[in-house]
Design goal:
heterodimer; A: about 50 residues; mainly alpha; 2 helices; B: about 775 residues; Alpha-Beta Plaits; Calcium-transporting ATPase, cytoplasmic transduction domain A; 5 domains; 7-stranded mixed beta sheet; about 50% helix
């Protein structure tokens, strides 16, 4: 039982981190051009910073 | 933009026409841009031809190498390039010209930026909601599984509490799209699918909170958030499809004329926007532009193309005193007009009003999902209520248990699979349509396309290509060939272009290379071109005008044709004919095979319509129709119970397009025509019409199957729920499995290849000619220098 008190917050915390990362990716416009992203990776000279 | 008179008086010296022109162009670019600060602008360019990584790289690197460009971002989904640049003389036009020099047919994006932003914001909201509900669903499911697999009561209660702590904010955040929609439906005294969804989610949440706080054994937190997660997937897919289709339709929907060049006494010509035009202004319309408003010609002569306005396929000439409608294309020379209307009262505006009236009729159409919701929502509510009453009576007043069972009924019946049944199919169908060069406005189009039984075509620009071809000519010898070609190349008149193409296709031998020495070349609007060749006059143009200089032999003068003559020598005649759109015959046959009636409604002359109808074997055709007559005809037929698919391209078709049960337009159509239609086909092949109908049929079959599957699931799950056998575990399994089955069934559309042979092979050939979008656009480039 005591393990759970430690492990569950850790698990949820990691999940929340993932969620925050996803929010950031949405905010920074990475879902605005899904088609473009799929082909940009093929361009060798392309710098791959988002926006 | 008023500063242009004051800015630089020395530039306005008459005769410095090129300078004025360049300044007007720059003003247009700035008018379409967003001003970031004093020095910087952001401009969005439409680049329909961009389609791969190479294009993106070329554009972005190319533009960044320009000194005035600060940043560039190409968006392949919407085919737009956003450029941030600093102010300077001709800086904006340079960017546009640069894009055109790279080989992309770029133009200014005139879509309202706020609309784009709103759309993007909505997408971001849905995506975030989906992520939150997905996060909550995964974590709560994990906790629930431990409870279901036999956790000790204390552990179970702790897990329920944690689930509750996750679920409440998650539902509050992710449920907003449904709560808002349900609220607005209820305030309009309607029921939609979102009402039972919201009710189920909120009740399940409240009951589960109550249960877990009071130490109860079971909670529905997982069901509530999983339900939201699945439904949000459906919503997001739906949004993606609309967004994509709209981006595509918008990039084709360029306004025919965004403004005009105003000529004022004592002031240099300046560009004014459409909204600023008032009756009585003097406006200059250059060759290749469309009239922005109705007007009377003041000076200048030109050939004009009324095809998009009236459907007449042959160009006419105009001179001072003639009255022209908005949307008429000026072909050969620039003319000055006095506007007789403003943008709100022009011919274009009248047509737009007719379209709006017709579209109101269409908005009464209820999509299949809404029809389901109208039956489904009340049934679910009544069922849950009856369950509650039944259990209260049966257990003699145990309302706690009764509520519990009633909520289980609500959750189990919740249209999880129903919510996915339609959008998944529509998204896949839209993708199939795109693969065939078809851009669809929304999912409802598929449903309406599936119901039609009669296909009505417009002639000019729809069944036939917008440009004529030479179908026959007199005997040609080598020498005049080069002369005719040289003359024909001097004008942009469609008939001359047809002749030039014809000669080039004829003379593949050495004779093409021969250059004809022409001097004192001149073009006479409405007649043709004239020049001196080897000290003799030569003319190419209208038969009567050419015959004036020819030798006296009375060659019969054809109605539909172009002639050529060298002074005092024999006349050479070319017969012009409207070229059928590729795949026209096969498409008509295919549509008949599918059981549709086919007819033609045209604004063109009876003779021209009859010829096309006979070639295609269409018995039913009407000609010389005004836009009003077209729309009346369509409405009458629909009043008799027919469901009409209208296929047309012109302004004159636009009201009929809006009135039809469904409508299609080629990409070459007028803007108003494109805006009024449900589906736009970007390839020149007419087989797109049959393909669209086939995909729509197939999609509707799948939608019905999905509904059947969802109902089948309900018919099993509901009795169990009413009898009180459904535990949270069973609800979770049933809900997920029914959703998965529906998605799997929808995916069968991707493998659907049963499209007629004629429709399968041709589009591929067209595609190799340079991608979709480019093929049909015959509009003048507004800004190409």
């Amino acid at each position: 039982m005591t393990h759970l008190l430690v492990l569950i917050p850790i698990a949820l915390g990691l999940g929340v981190l993932g969620l925050i990362a996803f929010f950031w990716s949405v905010r920074s416009g990475q879902y605005e051009d899904l088609e473009g992203s799929s082909v940009r990776i093929l361009d060798a000279d392309e710098d791959d910073r988002p926006l | 933009m008023n500063q242009c008179c004051a800015i630089d008086p020395k530039k306005s010296s008459p005769g410095d026409a090129a300078e004025i022109f360049a300044r007007l162009e720059e003003e247009r670019v700035i008018a379409a841009s967003e001003r970031l600060d004093d020095q910087r602008f952001q401009t969005s360019f439409l680049v329909p031809d961009m389609h791969c990584a190479g294009c993106i790289g070329t554009i972005e690197r190319g533009l960044l190498s320009m000194p005035q460009v600060e940043s560039v971002r190409a968006n392949l989904t919407t085919r737009r390039v956003a450029v941030c640049w600093t102010k300077g003389s001709k800086h904006g036009t340079e960017i546009l010209n640069f894009l055109n020099r790279l080989g992309f047919d770029a133009s200014l994006d005139d879509l309202k930026q706020t609309l784009v932003d709103q759309d993007a914001a909505k997408g971001r909201r849905l995506l975030s909601s989906m992520a939150v509900s997905g996060f909550a669903a995964a974590n709560i499911m994990l906790l629930s599984i431990s409870v279901w697999s036999g956790a000790e009561p204390q552990t179970a209660q702790l897990f329920h509490l944690i689930s509750g702590i996750i679920a409440v904010p998650a539902v509050a955040y992710a449920g907003r799209p449904f709560f808002q929609s349900a609220f607005s439906a209820l305030s309009a005294r309607r029921l939609n699918m979102d009402v039972p969804i919201s009710l189920a989610v909120v009740l399940a949440l409240l009951m589960s909170l109550f249960e877990s706080l009071s130490g109860g054994a079971e909670a529905y937190f997982d069901a509530a958030v999983t339900l939201l997660f699945f439904l949000l997937i459906g919503r997001y897919l739906d949004h993606l499809m609309r967004h994509k289709a709209r981006g595509a339709a918008d990039r084709l929907a360029r306004m025919s004329s965004k403004g005009a060049v105003l000529i004022e006494q004592g002031c240099p010509p300046r560009f004014i926007e459409l909204a600023e035009i008032k009756p009585g202004m003097c406006l200059r319309v250059n060759a290749g532009e469309r009239l922005p408003v109705n007007g009377e010609v003041l000076s200048g002569e030109s050939d004009i193309d009324r095809a998009l306005v009236t459907g007449e396929s042959q160009s006419q000439s105009c001179r001072a005193g003639d009255r022209l409608e908005a949307g008429v294309l000026v072909l050969t020379g620039s003319i000055d007009i006095r506007s007789t209307s403003d943008a709100k009262t022009s011919f274009l505006a009248e047509i737009t009003q007719m379209i709006q009236a017709a579209e109101r009729g269409r908005s009464f159409y209820v999509s299949i999902a809404d029809r389901m919701a109208r039956i489904y929502a009340p049934v679910v509510h009544i069922l849950a209520l009856l369950t509650f009453i039944g259990w209260t009576l049966a257990t003699s007043g145990d309302w706690h248990l009764a509520i519990y069972v009633a909520i289980a009924v609500l959750i189990v019946t919740c249209p999880c699979a129903l919510g996915l049944a339609v959008p998944v199919v529509h998204v896949i169908a839209a993708q199939r349509m795109m693969d065939h060069g078809l851009l669809m406005r929304d999912g409802q189009t598929l449903e309406r396309l599936n119901e039609i039984d009669h296909v009505i075509f417009d002639k000019t620009g729809t069944l036939t290509m917008a440009e004529p071809t030479v179908s026959a000519s007199s005997q040609l010898s080598d020498q005049p060939l080069a002369v005719i070609n040289a003359l024909a190349e001097k004008t942009s008149h469609p008939a001359a272009k047809a002749v030039s193409r014809h000669i080039q296709s004829l003379a593949e031998g050495p004779s093409v290379d021969r250059q004809a020495d022409l001097t004192s070349l001149s073009e006479r609007a409405g007649y043709g071109v004239e020049a001196i060749w080897q000290n003799q006059r030569v003319r190419l143009g209208r038969p009567t005008w050419v015959a004036e200089i020819a030798a006296g032999n009375n060659l019969e003068i054809k109605h539909h044709g172009v002639m050529f003559a060298v002074e005092n020598r024999e006349i050479i005649g070319f017969t012009l004919e409207d070229d059928l759109r590729p795949g026209a015959e096969a498409t008509i046959l295919e549509l008949r095979r599918m059981g549709f009636a086919v007819s033609i409604l045209s604004g063109d002359q009876p003779e021209a319509v009859r010829r096309v109808a006979e070639r295609l074997g269409i018995e039913e055709y009407l000609s010389s129709l005004t836009p009003q007559e077209k729309i009346q005809h369509v409405q009458q037929r629909q009043a008799q119970g027919e469901k009409i698919l209208m296929v047309g391209d012109g302004l004159n078709d636009a009201p009929a397009l809006a009135a039809g049960h469904a409508s299609m337009a080629p990409a070459s159509a007028s803007d108003v025509g494109r805006l009024a239609s449900d589906v736009i086909f970007t390839r020149s092949d007419l087989s797109a019409v049959a393909t669209a109908c086939q995909i729509a049929r197939r999609a509707q079959v799948l939608v019905r199957q999905n509904f059947a599957l969802a109902l089948l699931y309900n018919s099993v799950a509901v009795p169990l729920a009413v009898l009180g056998f459904v535990t949270p575990l069973i609800a979770a399994i049933a809900m997920s499995s029914s959703s998965l089955i529906v998605i799997a069934n929808s995916l069968r559309l991707t493998r659907f290849s049963n499209l007629g042979k004629s429709t399968q092979d041709r589009p591929r050939l067209v595609r190799s000619n340079g991608g979709s979008g480019r093929s049909g656009i015959s509009q003048p480039r507004e800004l190409a220098a």
